[in-house]
Design a protein that fits this description.
Blueprint (H helix, E strand, L loop, with lengths): L4 E6 L2 E5 L4 E9 L5 E8 L6 E2 L4 E4 L4 E8 L10 E11 L6 E11 L5 E5 L2 E4 L2 E9 L5 E8 L5 E5 L3 E4 L3 E11 L9 E11 L28 H13 L18 E9 L8 H9 L15 E9 L5 E8 L3 E4 L2 E3 L2 E6 L5 E8 L4 E8 L13 E5 L3 E4 L6 E9 L5 E8 L6 E3 L3 E4 L4 E8 L10 E11 L6 E10 L4 E7 L2 E4 L3 E9 L4 E4 L3 H5 L3 E6 L14 E6 L4 E6 L5 E3 L4 E10 L8 E10 L4 E3 L1 E7 L6 H26 L8 H7 L1 H14 L3
Parallel strand pairs: 2-9, 11-18, 27-34, 35-45, 36-46
Antiparallel strand pairs: 1-3, 3-7, 4-6, 4-8, 5-7, 8-9, 10-12, 12-16, 13-15, 13-17, 14-16, 17-18, 19-20, 20-23, 21-22, 21-24, 24-25, 26-28, 28-32, 29-31, 29-33, 30-32, 33-34, 35-37, 37-43, 38-39, 38-42, 39-40, 40-44, 41-43, 44-46
């Protein structure tokens, strides 16, 4: 029994996926009459499942403190989902027999950690074919189902294989054919966005997913009460959906939260492209006089203009405008559709203006970045931070800093230490609170270590550390600092397809995945495109862009025999690869030799090397199959043509020998074959008389 210890856990149950991180709070209270030290321990679970930033705490009588427990089930438990229970114990150092316990449970969710890719990401035409690939990184086999949908249901989809069985540590693929329906068949060029999703196949749909909560659509209606055809039609619906659908067919809403989604685009070309080009060119040459009436010009339309953010520090402003000849964002010319990344220091208003013939449309949005408390001091609390500017690499060695806390009051007091402006997981404190005598000083060690994961970007992160008195909560001292996450550009290259066979050239797709915390700008010049080289710059946020140097690298392709010429193609002069994003570049390899020769294989290596950019090369192969293997083929063709010519001359001469005095040999042969044969024998016999 623990009469002098109060212990509780919030929350008492946690649901996590294997490899994810969660946090619970253990509340400890000293119910005794003396100052005591309490130690936290966990029984019934492997130590690799949890981390204790602070394992013990000293409390005054009737004092209470919170102790963090960071839970991180190992990745190896993804194949063993279920509920695991264990016990948290609080032991008194003054009296080891005093033990308080609380129960805690972790539910390991089934993990759908599959990879979904669709290639190409954009296709142009009246119909398009896509390749959907599902990768399984686990040891066990996974059975998944594929679905495709768009927001307005303007497209039709057909998978050659709708249910895939993906082997462990392998991949499986399916072909997807996309066509516009009859409503979207007519019209000019237009871009349709759609989604391809995959989820684990289910034998039966769950009861809570039989109806859409938005539109009320019933996914698997039952027709078993209809004789003869009813059971057959119900079974056909079950085979079509294969359990709980991923999207609602009525309103296109996503139903299953565990599904993986990849987006792509289908660009429908105009039906006039199938008309004769010559007539269209003649019509385009006709110049009709333009009579402009500004009062009758159509008003520009701003479809979307919004700002989004994840950390209230960096904002993405995206827009889309129609019927505009000129678009301005805060007075600067921009494209009709695009986005820009901004990092304002204070609340800022951005105005988008669309200008047409005599008409103007504008919209404004205001972004509010995160505001931190101002630096203040207290007469009862002294706080000094050893280093105010801290520089650290994400996922690297922690950068320590010391916070010196001094009790300037006249009584014994306890001070709590808190941090704002950055995620708490980025900073580990040696103690969340300290108790001090009057005029006493103590130090709290702060270890700054931002993780290297998606969402963490290079840049400056201002933060504040608040030291608050427990006896007088209104007394607080705030110390400001700045954490700079240094840029660490890392790119991973992948070439698809790996093997290409062709007679004139081979086309590859080079995928550049930015796995670092800083952005990468791909800015090729016209001369560099012909030389198959690009330049990379790693870019920081805009306010520090001019004060920082850029790091460069070159993307190039080579082969061992130096027998190929390479060319890279991009749609825009600048391609920005945001941190943790991917860009695709088309590469064309042309063999230097001509149309004659034996089949040859070229081993191609694509690299991106430069100072400060960490990359790994990617390999691919080109099999060149010339039209003609050797001169022997041409010589044989020449002899065959000569033989055919001689044979034609002989046939013509024989036909001509059957002529008479009034008609040619061919006319006599077609009119009277008997007379032609008689004339032929007479003419040949005359040679020997």
């Amino acid at each position: 029994m623990a009469n002098n210890i109060g212990a509780s856990i919030e929350p008492e149950a946690v649901a996590l996926q294997a490899g994810a991180t969660g946090e619970v709070i253990a509340k400890v209270k000293n119910l005794g009459q003396t100052v005591d030290q309490f130690t936290l321990s966990i029984d019934g679970i492997d130590p690799s499942w949890y981390t204790l930033p602070v394992s013990s705490v000293a409390l005054f009588p009737n004092d209470q403190d919170d102790m963090r427990i960071i839970l991180h089930p190992p990745k190896a438990m993804e194949d063993k989902p279920g509920r695991y229970s264990f016990r948290v114990k609080i032991v008194s150092r003054e009296n080891p027999d005093e033990i308080a316990a609380a129960d805690l449970s972790i539910e390991i969710k089934p993990l759908l950690d599959l990879g979904l890719e669709i290639s190409p990401e954009q296709a142009v035409g009246r119909r398009a074919d896509y390749q959907v690939t599902v990768t399984n990184p686990h040891e066990s086999t996974a059975t998944v189902r594929l679905e495709a949908i768009d927001d307005r249901q303007r497209l039709r989809y057909r998978f050659d294989i709708k249910t895939l069985t993906v082997p462990g540590r392998g991949r499986a693929g399916a072909n997807l054919e996309v066509r516009p329906n009859w409503l979207a068949f007519f019209g000019g060029e237009k871009t349709f966005g759609f989604w391809v999703a995959t989820a684990r196949a289910e034998e039966e749909a769950r009861a809570d997913f039989r109806f859409c909560t938005r539109c009320g659509h019933e996914f698997l209606p039952s027709y078993d009460d209809i004789p003869v055809i009813g059971p057959w039609y119900s079974e056909r619906l079950r085979q079509r959906y294969g359990g709980t659908p991923i999207f609602c067919p009525g309103c296109s809403r996503r139903i299953r939260a565990d599904a993986l989604i990849a987006d792509a685009e289908f660009v429908r070309t105009s039906w006039t492209n199938s008309l004769p080009r010559l007539s269209l060119r003649r019509l385009r040459r006709i110049r009709f006089p333009r009579i402009r009436f500004p009062s009758y010009a159509r008003q520009p339309i701003i479809d979307t203009f919004k700002a989004t953010t994840e950390d209230e520090r960096e904002f993405i402003i995206a827009w889309s405008v129609k019927r505009a000849r000129k678009v301005e964002l805060n007075g600067e010319d921009v494209d009709a559709k695009g986005n820009v990344f901004v990092c304002p220091a204070e609340s800022t208003t951005y105005t988008l203006t669309a200008i047409n013939r005599g008409r103007t449309a504008s919209e404004a949005i205001e972004v509010h970045p995160l505001r931190l408390p101002q630096e203040t001091s207290s007469e009862r609390i002294g706080a000094v931070l050893s280093t105010r500017e801290i520089k650290v690499h994400a996922g690297s060695v922690p950068e320590p800093a010391m916070l010196q806390v001094q009790n300037l009051g006249d009584i014994v007091d306890k001070f709590s230490v808190g941090i704002e402006g950055i995620d708490e997981s980025w900073c580990i404190r040696s103690a969340s609170s300290v108790g001090l005598m009057p005029e006493a000083t103590d130090q709290v060690q702060l270890s700054f270590q931002p993780p290297k994961k998606e969402g963490v970007r290079a840049g400056n992160y201002p933060f504040v550390i608040s030291v608050r008195s427990q006896a007088a909560p209104e007394e607080v001292t705030i110390v400001a600092g700045q954490l700079e996450v240094l840029p660490a550009p890392e790119c991973r290259l992948e070439v698809r397809p790996v093997n290409v066979s062709g007679r004139r050239k081979g086309t590859f797709r080079v995928n550049i995945e930015n796995t670092g915390v800083s952005d990468v700008i791909l800015a090729p010049k016209a001369s560099e495109v012909r030389k198959s080289r690009f330049k990379f710059w790693t870019r920081r946020p805009k306010e520090t862009e001019k004060a920082r140097d850029t790091e460069q690298a070159q993307l190039k392709a080579t082969d061992l025999d130096e027998g190929c010429r390479f060319q890279f193609k991009t749609k825009r002069p600048e391609v920005t690869i945001r941190a943790w994003n991917t860009a695709e570049i088309r590469m064309i390899a042309r063999p230097k030799r001509g149309f004659m020769g034996e089949e040859k294989r070229y081993d191609i290596t694509v690299t991106a090397a430069g100072a400060g950019v960490n990359t790994q090369p990617a390999n691919c192969q080109l099999r060149h199959r010339p039209f003609i293997r050797s001169w022997k083929t041409i010589w044989r063709l020449f002899k065959f043509l000569v033989f055919v010519a001689i044979l034609a001359i002989l046939i013509w001469f024989v036909i001509h020998m059957g002529h008479d005095e009034e008609s040619t040999g061919w006319q006599v042969l077609t009119d009277d074959p008997g007379a032609w044969w008689k004339n032929l024998r007479e003419n040949i016999g005359g040679w020997f008389d």
